[in-house]
Specification:
The chain is an alpha+beta fold. It has a domain of about 140 residues: Histidine kinase-like ATPase, C-terminal domain (Heat Shock Protein 90, 2-Layer Sandwich), CATH 3.30.565.10. The chain is about 60% helix and about 20% strand. It is built from 5 helices and 7 strands; from the N terminus they run αααβαββββαββ. A 5-stranded mixed β-sheet has the order 1-2-3-7-6, covered by helices on one side. The protein has a two-stranded antiparallel sheet with strand order 4-5. Strand 1, helix 4 and strand 2 form a beta-alpha-beta unit. The longest helix has about 70 residues. The termini are far apart.
Length: about 240
């Protein structure tokens, strides 16, 4: 057999093998991402259920509050009633911190994540409004926000700051949906060039990957930066 033919067949075999390896790798990556998304959806579901459970508890408690106030009123215990109303007002202020963005799904993810952050002792400051007209699919938007806040909580857990914080801002800006999340972070953050790396093993790295993919899907803008123990992510997505 001609050596040129043998060489050509060998080269073709190598190319086919390389293509096959790439296809298998892509298949495995897609399966792994699918598993991660499934786990993420389940996690969000559990967090939302927990939030709704707390809200049902609050509503149940207020029935008892009304009964207590009526009892104070009937017995003429006005000072006790005034004190009780003061305590109730404080409790109501905490309940009223539920974030309303204008989008039910985003509300569910944001409120569940921020409630988790508060339970961990993280100071939270959030303002978010989702306009009716937005080109981004609701599921994709929830993927972005869920992963951003998961990463922010991870950063707060690793910081030496005695008062870790998370700041969230989302609103329409110049025909774009502007998303800003900042959080306390360790002074040493893992980077590879301009790329930030996760410090967790396993599926956590897919959180950053999913954010990147969704932003790229909509030809959006993504900027990550860190400075003196603060990590910031900025994202801009088209409204139409």
């Amino acid at each position: 057999m001609n050596y040129e033919v043998i060489f050509a067949l060998g080269a073709l075999g190598i190319i086919l093998l390389a293509i096959l390896c790439c296809a298998v790798f892509a298949l495995l990556m897609n399966r792994r991402v699918a598993v991660y998304q499934s786990e993420l959806a389940e996690k969000h579901y559990e967090e939302v259920e927990n939030m709704y459970r707390q809200m049902r508890g609050w509503r149940h408690d207020y029935k008892h509050h009304i009964q207590t106030m009526k009892a104070h009123l009937v017995m003429g215990q006005y000072e006790e009633l005034d004190a009780y109303l003061g305590e109730l007002d404080t409790d109501l202020a905490e309940v009223d911190t539920v974030l309303r963005t204008g989008n039910v799904r985003v509300d569910a993810v944001l409120n569940s994540k921020l409630a988790t952050a508060k339970a961990k002792g993280i100071s939270v400051n959030a303002k978010a409004l989702v306009p009716e007209s937005v080109a981004v699919n609701e599921v994709d938007l929830c993927i972005i926000m869920g992963n951003l806040l998961d990463n922010a909580m991870e950063g707060c857990e690793k910081t030496e700051d005695e008062r870790p914080f998370i700041r969230v801002y989302m609103e329409a800006l110049k025909e774009q949906l502007y998303i800003y999340v900042s959080n306390s972070a360790a002074h040493q953050i893992h980077r590879e060039g301009e790329k930030y790396l996760s410090t967790k093993r396993g599926n956590h790295g897919f959180g950053l990957m999913r954010i990147d993919r969704v932003v790229k899907k909509y030809n959006g803008f993504l900027n990550r930066q860190d400075d003196e123990g603060v990590f910031v992510t900025e994202i801009m997505l088209p409204l139409s």
